[in-house]
Structures are given as C-alpha cells and as structure tokens.
Amino acid sequence: MAVRINCSIQNTLSLLNPPLSSLRFRASPLKLNPHFRFGQNPSRGALFCTYATTDITPSNAEPFVLTTPLYYVNAPPHMGSAYTTIAADAIARFQRLLGKKVIFITGTDEHGEKIATAAMAQGSTPPDHCNLISQSYKALWKDLDISYDKFIRTTDSKHEAIVKEFYSRVLDNGDIYRADYDGLYCVNCEEYKDEKELLDNDCCPVHLKPCVSRKEDNYFFALSKYQKALEETLNKNPNFVQPSFRLNEVQSWIKSGLRDFSISRASVDWGIPVPDDKSQTIYVWFDALLGYISALSDDQEQPDLLKSVSSGWPASLHLIGKDILRFHAVYWPAMLMSAGLSLPKRVFGHGFLTKDGMKMGKSLGNTLEPNDLVDKFGTDAVRYFFLREVEFGSDGDYSEERFINIVNAHLANTVGNLLNRTLGLLKKNCQSILVVDSTTAAEGNSFKDNVENLVDKARIHYENLSLSSACEAVLEIGNVGNSYMDQRAPWSLFKQGDTAAEAAAKDLVIILETVRIIAIALFPVTPSLSWRIYEQLGYSRDQFDAATWRDTKWGGLKGGQVMAQPKPVFARIEIQTEVEDKGKGVSVGKTVKSKGKLKQAQEVAGA
C-alpha cells in the first residue's frame, strides 16, 4: 500500500499551464493520503492535442486516388479479396492523416461468362446474383472498417456509358479491328492463354483447370502497336510497377513480344453490347478496368468520360494481386494511351495469401472466410495480423496458432496491457488526473527522442507501402514504453513518497503520452482499437476524428487532463478445449493458445 504523499507534490501541481484555468480546474490543498486531490467536479473533457487541426498537405493539392480491383462476383468475398482491401484502407487512412484529400475506390466486376454460369448454378438471374454478391462485399467492408469513398458496380448505367465512350475513342484512333481468334481459353481467368504458359493437359497455371479450345469472330485491340511506348514508359518511370521484382516480370512480358488481344465475345450475352454491333459484348477486362474512371463520375450528372477524368484521374495507386498484373501494367496503360488519357502513377502487385501452401481462391475451393475470422477474432485482430505478418508485396501463409499468438502478444499485451496498468496506477495514486503536461514530464528525458525516432520510421514505411515494417516500428514504441515502465517501477516510487512520488506521477504521463502516440500511428491499421485508446485517454470522438499525423508529435496530453476509468481496450484471445485426463478417463477444460475465440471477460492479462 502506498504511503502518504508529502505536500511537496504541490510544487508539481504548480507546473500546470495557465490555459487550464479556462477548464475550471481547481487544485485543492493536498492532504496526507495516498492520492492526489483535485476539485470535486473536474471536467472530464480532454484538451485538444496541439496539432489536431493543422493539415500537412495544402488543401488545393491534387487528390490521392487509390483503387482496389473491382472484385468478381461469381462468389462471395474471400480472404484474398479482403486482404487487398484492408491494405488499401490502411494506405487511405494514412494519406488522410497527412491531410490529403483521398478518393478510395473499390467495387465489383459483374459481367462475363462466369457470372452468368454462377447465377444459373444458383437458380438465379445474373442481375439478382450480382445484387446479392455485391451487397455481401459492402457488408464485409463495413465489418472490416473499410473507409472507401466510391463503390462502383460495372452494371451501373453510368459505367456502361463511360465504357462505350471510351471504346469509341479507341476505335476512332484506329486501334480496334475485327478478326477470327482460335486458341485456348481459361474461363476462370476470362482470358485466352499462350500454350507456353500452360501446365500439363493445357491446365491454367493459376486455376489448375484445363483451358478449352475456342474459335470465334471478335473485335481486337492493337496492343502490339504500343510495345515501344510501354517499354519507354517503364524505362523512364521504373516506379510505375512495384515491387521492383514485379517490374521485371512486366518488362519480360513486353520484351517477349506483345500480341493484340480480343476485346469482345460473341458467345457471352451477359455484358455491355459493343457499340453498333449487338451480336458482341465487350470483353470483361476491357469493361472492368474503366470502373476506375467511371467511379469518379457524379451519380447525379450525365456520364461523361472527360468530366470523370477531370474529377481525379490519374489514379495515384492501383493496388492489385499479382495474378492480374498483366491486365493493369500492360493492357490498361496501352488502352489509356490509345484513348489519349493519362496513365496511373503506380501499380502495386501484392502477393497471394496461401493456405496449405496454395493460393486461396474461389475457383480453387480452398478459401479462408473473412466473415468467420471477424466473427471469431474481431476486426482489429484480423486487420493487424495480415498487415503485420505478411510482408506487403510477397506471399504470406495463414496459421490460426500464429494468428492468436501474434495478436495476443502485440495488441493485448504490448499495447493494451501497457495502457491498462498505467491507467490503474494513475487512478490509484492521482485520481486519474495528469499532474503535468507530457512535454514538461519528458524534459531532459531521452525516452521522448526514442519514441519520435520510431514514429519517423513508421511514417517512412507507410509512405513506401511497407505496411508490415510500419506496424513493427509502432509496436517497438510499445516495447520501449513497457521497458521504461519496468525500469522506472512507478508503483515503487509512489510508496517512497516525496520527490520519488513526483517522479512517478511524471512517469505515468510519459507512458500515457506514448500510448496516445501509438494510437495515432497505428490508426491506419487498427482504427477501432485506436479510438478505444483515445477514449480511455479522455478524448471525445470529435477530437479523435480531428487528429492528423502531426498528433504523433510529443506533447498532446496536458496537465489536469482527466483519464477515463481503466478498462481493457483489447481482450486476449482464449479458447477452452476439452482434453482427456488420462488418469481418470474423463474430459477436463484446458486453456490453450493454438485455436481460439475472442474472450468476452472484462479483463486483460497482467492488468
């Protein structure tokens, strides 16, 4: 039990900043008891952080336009689709923290042979099937805290108008002609394949299913005409395709010689009719890629290609899976060149999520269901694990045991428990009130510099799309915070009283300021957790929503600020499994960490 604290603590209280008088705080004389005493009804509203309303990017700067693929609606979303969108959301949230106007585009690709086949298999019509699956994407994005700005469906009337106008521009440029095509076609890829790409028995290397022989009269796009232009583009702008090893793939494809490709289908009814030829529908990829532009059009206006382009094109970043890199880094730029439009600034092809060493996909039937993961572990856990544990750009494998261990160690212990035990000490010894500003508390302390250096590292990693490394840098802030707490042992200092107790009170401010900074720096990855942290620190939702990356600067917490009552911000994941007691031949409960569900009890380990 803490001993009585000497009245010399009043000297510490005198350091409170003059602006606190406007908050009507009144420090009453300290009595000899284990707590710091303040007025009977201190305001529970927190001060705004110093930089909360200051933008980093000028308001007239061009928007940061970020896209995910438009997801194919042959089946409900799987974890591979969710992974791309979680990553895109983290990037979008970081850019917003920098003060940029962000246009985050996602949506669904709803035309093509696979869609009609899937609808028929379900005893449904293509429109009804598309409505159902598209809605399932929107529902999942809500559950995953995806903050998209535009959701485009390729069955939207405005999209069809944009596609037809774009097609006409390419046609007028002399880049569309009619010819017969005879080749091997992968229905799942919606693409004709070169025989040299295929595995044994003419199997597609992506879907591992045999391609079918097809011959039909189609319209073709003169891709070969743009070979030199594409080579020059990549040579002048090596950052156009990232990571760099993906650029090497694209350059290899182009150097091997580009062939014109079919942009219409005579055998597919479910699609956008070719202008002036209703016997053909536009190829699903030629159709879907235009969604990145049609999404920019205003729903209330007559669709217009150039007006849509003026609303934000070119895209700052196309975020895609590596399996559709050819469409985005070769076909799409050539199409845009033909239409006289600007190219996107960057195409980033990330790796696959694997399960049992194989790519997860609806066509392969080995998907990891994101809805199940969210229901079982929660949104923050799902977002954090996949962004922290999969190096962005490379493949990554899912293991439930690893998932639970990582999330428990990082979010529940390193971050959650640090906050919880610090607030517990503050409540016990200081009535949950900060005795000084965080800037004053850290004067002459190199700990503050360590935190700010790690924040700078996190920012650089976010900017470079190194999301795993950004998470690692933020987590390291939590690690140094825990080390500082253990080294300083404020619980012992409070027992000593006098100047030791004053130092302990400052230490708690330092730790809480550290956790506040973690909340902002980790916000792109775990937005809900970050809000719960800020709420514990006494901030309102409006104050949290007003925060920018500048709030990662030290100095946000102010003396006299009242913290909320401590409660867990992230509960450990636990599971009860039945194991047999060999001695008695009966089943007994045992807690393990290999498989789990979110523990609902209001406790955090070590709190």
From TrEMBL:
<dbReference type="InterPro" id="IPR033911">
    <property type="entry name" value="MetRS_core"/>
</dbReference>
<dbReference type="GO" id="GO:0005739">
    <property type="term" value="C:mitochondrion"/>
</dbReference>
<dbReference type="GO" id="GO:0004825">
    <property type="term" value="F:methionine-tRNA ligase activity"/>
</dbReference>
<dbReference type="GO" id="GO:0009570">
    <property type="term" value="C:chloroplast stroma"/>
</dbReference>
<dbReference type="Pfam" id="PF09334">
    <property type="entry name" value="tRNA-synt_1g"/>
</dbReference>
<dbReference type="InterPro" id="IPR015413">
    <property type="entry name" value="Methionyl/Leucyl_tRNA_Synth"/>
</dbReference>
<keyword id="KW-0067">ATP-binding</keyword>
<comment type="similarity">
    <text>Belongs to the class-I aminoacyl-tRNA synthetase family.</text>
</comment>
<dbReference type="InterPro" id="IPR023457">
    <property type="entry name" value="Met-tRNA_synth_2"/>
</dbReference>
<dbReference type="InterPro" id="IPR041872">
    <property type="entry name" value="Anticodon_Met"/>
</dbReference>
<feature type="domain" description="Methionyl/Leucyl tRNA synthetase">
    <location>
        <begin position="197"/>
        <end position="423"/>
    </location>
</feature>
<dbReference type="InterPro" id="IPR014758">
    <property type="entry name" value="Met-tRNA_synth"/>
</dbReference>
<dbReference type="Pfam" id="PF19303">
    <property type="entry name" value="Anticodon_3"/>
</dbReference>
<feature type="domain" description="Methionyl-tRNA synthetase anticodon-binding">
    <location>
        <begin position="441"/>
        <end position="575"/>
    </location>
</feature>
<keyword id="KW-0648">Protein biosynthesis</keyword>
<keyword id="KW-0436">Ligase</keyword>
<dbReference type="InterPro" id="IPR009080">
    <property type="entry name" value="tRNAsynth_Ia_anticodon-bd"/>
</dbReference>
<keyword id="KW-0547">Nucleotide-binding</keyword>
<protein>
    <recommendedName>
        <fullName>methionine--tRNA ligase</fullName>
        <ecNumber>6.1.1.10</ecNumber>
    </recommendedName>
</protein>
<keyword id="KW-0030">Aminoacyl-tRNA synthetase</keyword>
<dbReference type="InterPro" id="IPR014729">
    <property type="entry name" value="Rossmann-like_a/b/a_fold"/>
</dbReference>
<dbReference type="GO" id="GO:0005524">
    <property type="term" value="F:ATP binding"/>
</dbReference>
<dbReference type="GO" id="GO:0006431">
    <property type="term" value="P:methionyl-tRNA aminoacylation"/>
</dbReference>
